[in-house]
Amino acid sequence: MKNSSATVHQPLKNQPLPQSFNGRLPAFLFVLGTSLVCLLVGGAIIWSGQEGTGLHLASMVFFGLWPLAVGVLFLYLSAIFTWRLTLLPDKFILRHTFHERTFATADLLRVRVLTITSSRSPQPLLVLDLAFSNGRSLRINQNELSVPMIQLVDLMVHHYQMPLTYEREAAHIHHTQFGAGSRRPFTHYLNGASGVPVQSVADICRWLQQCEYVRDADLFNQKDVWQHPGEFEARQKGDCEDHALWAWRKLKELNIPAEFVVGRMAWGDESIPAGAHAWVVYRENGRTYILESTYKQRPLIYPLDELPARYTPWFSVDGAMQTYRYLPVATRVSREGQK
What we know:
alpha+beta, about 30% helix, ten-stranded antiparallel sheet
């Protein structure tokens, strides 16, 4: 997988603390500009009525006070938008123009990303939810952040030593968000001709071992192409999506619950380069497994709970065409729970 709509950002966690993140500048400038316009309009109306007397002066002052009031309101809102989040080893500080809040990292119990839907926005809003053992809490939405939410979570998890997992959330994810080569609905890969018979997961692995991993740039002279399983069978060549889509289809033929997953993979092995990737997750005998169909010098099947830090899922789709997004959750055991 060369390109994906899930953007891969350069990690911030390699940089030492402290680190500071300012609020979004466009929001501040818009609110500040609106307040200045309202103040100028209100002041101009009152100024123009200075030469008048009686009712005319009173009416000009009355009509001028309204934009002045709106300008003061927006000026106050501009102060809310001007905030800065500073992460320190022992605490982090959320500064507003007129006040600041300090939170001890020792009390940080959970870092979680939530999605909130709104009738005013077609896309769900990402919200960072922080919970503390002393009962305090803090929420920051993506519109307030100048950096991607996932980057901030990775930074906090790394520096505050919190175990990271991912929550799967059912959501309507268009197939084009899975990658640049995903140009057809997922039903396309589960229908049509596929002539390789399989009777077990072991049969799937044995056939995949005969296939050759070839990049799309070398095979098709294109950045990203997703082959139909029948085409992949004919060539027995392809990249991670081609291997994973074929395995996903065969697992469905065996009536084994399975999902095609895209995300990021990092084994920490120079022979396996880190980056955007596609794989299959399936459930059998009460346990969940990863079918890693690409790196054939290693076993293809791994229990999912043995590889929590090597695979970062972004989106997945199951055999019923239900799509999911994955949101990071980091939870630290409280002092009470440790006793």
